């Protein structure tokens, strides 16, 4: 008999009490539709919209831009979405869950990657969001478009994002639904507002970025389409851990994740493509977007700059807090969240006033993705090998600052999984193409950055070879979980 779900009205409304500890089943009140809502709402921000501008900046026309993003997003979603099932089974976040494959200390690899990835994306979100707030205010009210204005806007966006992240899962879930609904209305209004300026011809002169159509289309598929889902490799478990496998099937959670990722990414990105062609945005996106906007659309654009940014940044800071909590167990989730939010805002201000950091941080994120992809694929391979059966108590050994358990392996590290990750990461870094570093293998891929695909494939092959004859710990199945594989 499937256990009855706790009443949502009985759930405490205050600050979330759980960090990376195993969430008791009584507190796992999330539903698959909550995953859809949070993936939709968290992506309705300029930091995601701007990816839709990339195909235009590569020299593609409108319809090839659209098909490249759709193809890349669908492929990336199918590769990444299964990660949500891992945390659904463990009741904790993905980096802690990866201890079942990497060892209870080896899972620190995932915690560090997740922390740094979210830090980079949070900074990029606040930077683009700040421009979407200052630009409309400058046109509407004559606000000076300078450092003082950006300082005030960054502070406002940062404080609101931190408050949301501190309150945690329930506020993020509730807010995301309203942000998704409101932003869909704003984007529909934007299509009307920019429609008179829209043309499908290329917005840049000089032809295709890589010289010919198909190579440039492939570049767009990877850079604008596939890279979107890859940003979720450490985030999905933050929300699926609240969905009980005793009340919801893995099939429904996987389907909800796919729907949330596909529509959550494609809707804002395709809006970005449409407006990029309407505003003829070639070298920059936000500036031409604001300049080409009808006066009546400046207020909706401003609202999206505020609420879209704090929704996305709040989720990223929340994830950073969980990862730091996993790295430094004595810290509570709230203290860890406050600390990482301070780190994020320092990066934002240094990037604006001291460095020309946006390109550098973008390159940093791409480098992290190249080492994160092999971690993700090995975690999924471990999930398949243990047939989705985990020992939640043994996963918490490091958090209790103790030793032992079925995931202790060698001093808390699974050396085979770690070696496979290192091999895949090396291939990924050698094939990456960024403003900071261009790997030598990029010449073999015709100038297309396939780093995370090559890294993932290499890591998976290495892991399968290195683990031949090495059994994966497979705890006994929980009889209360419908459809869970039973240990042979």
From TrEMBL:
Transmembrane segments annotated in the record for this chain: 35-54, 66-87, 108-128, 148-169, 178-197, 217-237, 253-277, 297-322, 334-355, 361-384, 405-430, 450-468
Region (Disordered): 1-26
Domain of life: Bacteria
Subcellular compartments: Membrane
Main location: membrane
Keyword terms: Membrane, Transmembrane, Transmembrane helix, Transport
Compositional bias annotation for Basic and acidic residues: 10-26
Membrane topology: Multi-pass membrane protein
UniProt xrefs under Pfam families: Transp_cyt_pur
Keyword Transcription set for record: no
Gene3D superfamilies: Hydantoin permease (1.10.4160.10)
InterPro entries: Pur-cyt_permease, Pur-cyt_permease_Fcy2/21/22
Family in the record: Belongs to the purine-cytosine permease (2.A.39) family.
Name of the protein: Cytosine permease
Provenance organism: Saccharopolyspora taberi
């Amino acid at each position: 008999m499937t256990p009855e779900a706790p009443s949502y009205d009985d759930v405490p409304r205050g600050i979330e009490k759980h960090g990376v500890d195993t969430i008791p089943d009584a507190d796992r009140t999330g539903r698959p539709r909550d995953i859809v809502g949070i993936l939709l709402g968290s992506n309705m921000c300029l930091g995601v919209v701007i990816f839709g501008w990339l195909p235009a900046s590569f020299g593609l026309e409108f319809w090839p831009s659209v098909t490249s993003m759709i193809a890349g997003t669908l492929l990336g979603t199918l590769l990444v979405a299964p990660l949500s099932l891992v945390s659904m089974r463990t009741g904790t976040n993905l980096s802690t869950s990866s201890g079942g494959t990497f060892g209870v200390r080896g899972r620190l690899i995932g915690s560090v990657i997740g922390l740094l990835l979210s830090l980079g994306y949070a900074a990029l979100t606040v930077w683009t969001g700040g421009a979407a707030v200052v630009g409309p205010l400058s046109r509407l009210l004559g606000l000076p478009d300078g450092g003082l204005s950006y300082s005030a806007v960054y502070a406002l966006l940062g404080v609101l994002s931190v408050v949301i992240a501190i309150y945690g899962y329930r506020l993020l879930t509730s807010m995301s639904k309203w942000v998704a609904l409101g932003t869909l209305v704003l984007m529909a209004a934007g299509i009307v507002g920019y429609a008179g300026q829209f043309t499908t011809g290329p917005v840049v002169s000089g032809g295709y970025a890589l010289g010919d159509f198909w190579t440039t289309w492939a570049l767009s598929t990877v850079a604008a389409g596939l890279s979107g889902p890859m940003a979720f490799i450490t985030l999905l478990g933050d929300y699926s851990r609240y969905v009980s496998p005793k009340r919801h099937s893995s099939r429904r959670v996987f389907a909800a994740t796919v729907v949330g990722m596909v529509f959550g990414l494609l809707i804002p990105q395709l809006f970005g493509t449409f407006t990029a062609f309407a505003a003829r945005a070639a070298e920059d996106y936000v500036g031409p977007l604001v300049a080409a906007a009808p006066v009546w659309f400046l207020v909706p654009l401003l609202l999206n700059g505020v609420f879209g940014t704090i929704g996305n940044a709040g989720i990223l800071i929340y994830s950073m807090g969980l990862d730091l909590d996993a790295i430094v167990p004595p810290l509570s989730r709230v203290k860890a969240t406050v600390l990482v939010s301070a780190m994020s805002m320092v990066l934002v201000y240094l990037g604006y006033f001291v460095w020309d950091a946006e390109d550098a941080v973008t390159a940093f994120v791409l480098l992290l993705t190249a080492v994160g992809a092999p971690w993700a694929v090995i975690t999924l391979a471990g999930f398949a090998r243990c047939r989705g059966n985990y020992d939640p108590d043994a996963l918490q050994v490091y958090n209790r600052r103790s030793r032992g358990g079925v995931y202790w392996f060698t001093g808390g590290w699974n050396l085979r999984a770690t070696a496979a990750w290192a091999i895949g990461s090396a291939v990924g870094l050698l094939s990456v193409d960024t403003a900071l570093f261009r790997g030598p293998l990029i010449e073999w891929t015709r100038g297309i950055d396939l780093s995370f695909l090559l890294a993932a494939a290499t890591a998976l092959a290495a892991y399968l070879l290195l683990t031949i004859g090495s059994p994966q710990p497979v705890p006994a199945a929980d009889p209360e979980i419908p459809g869970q594989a039973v240990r042979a």
